[in-house]
Automatic annotation (TrEMBL):
<dbReference type="GO" id="GO:0004332">
    <property type="term" value="F:fructose-bisphosphate aldolase activity"/>
</dbReference>
<dbReference type="Pfam" id="PF00274">
    <property type="entry name" value="Glycolytic"/>
</dbReference>
<keyword id="KW-0812">Transmembrane</keyword>
<dbReference type="InterPro" id="IPR013785">
    <property type="entry name" value="Aldolase_TIM"/>
</dbReference>
<protein>
    <recommendedName>
        <fullName>Fructose-bisphosphate aldolase</fullName>
        <ecNumber>4.1.2.13</ecNumber>
    </recommendedName>
</protein>
<keyword id="KW-0324">Glycolysis</keyword>
<dbReference type="InterPro" id="IPR029768">
    <property type="entry name" value="Aldolase_I_AS"/>
</dbReference>
<dbReference type="GO" id="GO:0009507">
    <property type="term" value="C:chloroplast"/>
</dbReference>
<keyword id="KW-0704">Schiff base</keyword>
<dbReference type="InterPro" id="IPR000741">
    <property type="entry name" value="FBA_I"/>
</dbReference>
<keyword id="KW-0472">Membrane</keyword>
<keyword id="KW-0934">Plastid</keyword>
<comment type="pathway">
    <text>Carbohydrate degradation; glycolysis; D-glyceraldehyde 3-phosphate and glycerone phosphate from D-glucose: step 4/4.</text>
</comment>
<dbReference type="GO" id="GO:0006096">
    <property type="term" value="P:glycolytic process"/>
</dbReference>
<keyword id="KW-0150">Chloroplast</keyword>
<keyword id="KW-0456">Lyase</keyword>
<comment type="similarity">
    <text>Belongs to the class I fructose-bisphosphate aldolase family.</text>
</comment>
Length: 427
């Protein structure tokens, strides 16, 4: 608008100057330069003043816009941190933990095959509906990790699974990694893929209702682990965590140290400390906010094939030692994986770790240790759904008590005591 006024002024000023020249100049006489010079000065001064005014106004406007954008950024950043903080407090709340049902379609098919069902989307949907519509589940479960297929599924009545979870005050989460593949140049080890396109996928998952994410990579003690494998695991987790936080998702950081091997518990502690030191180094390098993550570590146990089993008190001692040496107190929650332990073993070990206060919320993020009895009770039969859901509540309540340090294994059935370790397990 200022530019338009300036153009109009220039045009009118030119007309006025031309008129003055005609009046002051007589035929046959020279131009009256002093008068003409005065006229030019008057027009030029006015134009200069307008330009200065426009520049001042533009500067004020630009400064105002900069301040406005800074204020918006601060408000947005504060809001994001506050939302993340509230979310973590919800997931890491007393007496509650995470139900992990993020098995890939292939792994879910293996579970269904164990009870004689085909691996079809209909059967997978039916099983996950059983789990996610269990009445009262939110009393013991604060979050549920879903596979991508499940995140977009609904019940047979048309209700979205994410809405079923919200109704129980359970936060929906999403598995975002794309699985393990061989790591070239390593000692027969693996690395986790899925960083390509992760930002756009995370944004879509958020729109669908997911509020936290999970990325699982593994470290094998019998295979070394090699420095390359440890570094690759840590770097991948750190990049994933940074991308998740950028897209509003709380990242669960999970470098699973596999149970495979016949090594003693001291060797597991040594490797776990090494892995977590590397993980936190790269988390810091990638500017990941520690207050905005959750951890999903393995418990520190002897190898599954070791000649001596460790007691829950011993496992708790070694595991908490590792955590105190490597995990900053800024991290709000430690959600252990079960890793092939029996349902009762996983619960007893968690209970032992909660016999005294910890700097973090120490809880569970179990898959098989919550689902094994449920699956065998269901058997794929509609008439068994209610009984299977009650079995899920039994296991969820047991681990809720363990998170509070109040669990007792008295009255547990034999099925819940059976180990579920599978050598070379993948999912």
């Amino acid at each position: 608008m200022a530019c338009s006024s300036l153009l109009k002024l220039s045009a009118s000023s030119s007309s006025w100057i031309a008129g003055q020249q005609a009046v002051n100049q007589r035929p046959g006489s020279a131009a009256r330069f002093p008068t003409r010079r005065v006229s030019v000065i008057r027009a030029g001064s006015y134009t200069d003043e307008l330009i200065k005014t426009a520049v001042r106004n533009f500067s004020v406007l630009a400064c105002g816009l900069i301040v406005w954008y800074i204020v918006l950024f601060i408000v947005f950043a504060f809001s994001f941190v506050s939302d993340i903080g509230r979310l973590e407090k919800s997931i890491a709340s007393p007496g509650r933990g995470i139900l992990a049902i993020d098995e890939s379609n292939a792994t879910c098919g293996k579970r269904l095959a164990s009870i004689g069902l085909d691996n079809t989307e209909t059967n997978r949907q039916a099983y996950r509906q059983l789990l996610l519509t269990t009445p009262g589940l939110g009393e013991y479960i604060s979050g549920a990790i879903l596979f991508e297929e499940t995140l977009y599924q609904s019940t047979t009545d048309g209700k979205k699974f994410v809405d079923c979870l919200r109704d129980e005050n359970i936060v929906p989460g999403i598995k975002v990694d794309k699985g393990l593949v061989p790591l070239p140049g390593s000692n027969n080890e693996s690395w986790c893929q899925g960083l390509d396109g992760l930002a756009s996928r995370s944004a879509e998952y958020y729109k669908q209702g997911a509020r936290f994410a999970k990325w699982r990579t593994v470290v094998s003690i019998p295979c070394g682990p090699s420095a390359l494998a440890v570094k690759e695991a840590a770097w991948g987790l750190a990049r994933y965590a940074a991308i998740s936080q950028e897209n509003g998702l709380v990242p669960i950081v999970e470098p699973e140290i596999l149970l495979d091997g016949d090594h003693p518990i001291e060797r597991t502690l040594e490797v776990a400390e090494r892995v977590w030191a590397e993980v936190f180094y790269y988390l810091a390098e990638n500017n990941v906010t520690f207050e905005g993550i959750l951890l999903k570590p393995s418990m520190v146990t002897p190898g599954a094939e070791h000649k001596e089993k460790a007691s829950p008190d011993t496992i708790a001692k070694y595991t908490l030692t590792m955590l105190r040496r490597r995990v900053p107190p800024a991290v709000p929650g430690i959600m252990f994986l079960s890793g092939g332990q029996s349902e009762v073993e996983a619960t007893l070990n968690l209970n032992a770790m909660n016999q005294s206060p910890n700097p973090w919320h120490v809880s569970f993020s179990y898959a098989r240790a919550l689902q094994n009895t449920v699956l065998k009770t269901w058997q794929g039969r509609p008439e068994n759904v209610e009984a299977a859901q009650k079995a899920l509540l039994v296991r969820a309540k047991a681990n809720s008590l363990a998170q509070l340090g109040k669990y007792s294994a008295e009255g547990e059935n034999e099925e819940a005591k059976k180990g579920m370790f599978v050598k070379g397990y993948t999912y």
